[in-house]
Write a structure and sequence with these properties.
Structural class: alpha+beta
CATH superfamily of the largest domain: Glutaredoxin
CATH topology of the largest domain: Glutaredoxin
Oligomer: single chain
Radius of gyration: 21 Å
Shape: elongated
């Protein structure tokens, strides 16, 4: 019997609908182009990893292509942040076969991996395909879907992963951002420093990574600035994250709201 079929049957026997794990399984492998790929190194560096695990099969084409197209939409706002890997479902399809399938179906310019350490078995039941999103220094799984792709949920999961994983990135010293009071009741005051004149913007995210408020970008001169324009009266009590963005850098700082 084909080894791929045996693997799928094994997963069915051990519980196809078993709850998937909540953190990723590490891998350190060479992709089909010979480039070394270490999952945890990329996650620890702040990357959001999309794993499109395919058989390959005809039913895998649509979801895998949609996941790639959505992933690419984040490149303009978060360059290099979202990394898409096309992988064999159980790592037993030859690289030549997987690469040819990807090319035929216009899934191109992405890392392709076929190695048994990168397996659907690490993420619950088998799917054709299985799409997974992983991010953060805690290597958390933000999305895990079999046999299709819910584009709305997938997009929201990437947004969530980007917001939360950014919190773990090295603080950009350029801004030297601080906030007070913290906890805040009705108005948050923000101090920050700009080394050079630049266009900046601010965003506020909740603990789940959903954007709750954004402010239009504006040009500002170099130097130290104080901004007391962040109204929090309408926010429910809880933890939030304020993000400052410039053309080159960003920084996120945590604060809490308590009325």
């Amino acid at each position: 019997m084909n080894i791929k079929i045996i693997a799928i049957i094994t997963l069915l026997i051990t519980g196809f609908f078993a709850k998937a794990q909540t953190t990723a399984t590490d891998f350190n492998v060479n992709d089909c182009g010979g480039t070394s790929r270490h999952l945890f190194t990329e996650l620890d560096a702040g990357k959001v990893i999309v794993l499109a695990m395919v058989d390959p099969c005809s039913s895998c084409i649509g979801p895998a292509k949609s996941a790639l197209a959505i992933s690419k939409t984040f490149e303009a706002s978060n360059p290099g942040k979202v990394v898409y890997y096309l992988t064999d479902d159980f790592g037993n399809t030859p690289c030549a076969t997987l690469t040819s399938w990807a090319s035929t179906n216009a899934i191109t310019s992405v890392p392709i991996i076929s190695d048994e350490t990168v397996s659907q078995a690490n993420y619950g039941g088998a799917g054709m395909p299985k799409i997974v999103i992983i991010a953060g220094i805690n290597h958390k799984i933000y999305f895990n879907q079999n046999n299709g792709l819910n584009a709305t949920t997938f997009t929201a999961a990437i947004n969530n992963a980007i917001a939360i994983s950014s919190i773990n990135e090295s603080v950009q010293s350029d801004f030297k951002m601080s906030v007070y009071p913290n906890p805040v009741n009705d108005q948050l005051t923000v101090n920050y420093h700009l080394n050079n004149a630049t266009e900046i913007s601010f965003e506020i995210f909740d603990l789940l990574g959903s954007k709750v408020k954004s402010f239009a970008a504006f040009k500002q001169n170099s130097g130290t600035h104080i901004a007391s324009k962040f109204e929090t009266e309408s926010f429910i009590n809880g933890i939030y994250f304020l993000k400052i963005n410039s053309n080159e850098n960003s920084q996120i700082i945590r604060f809490s709201v308590s009325h």
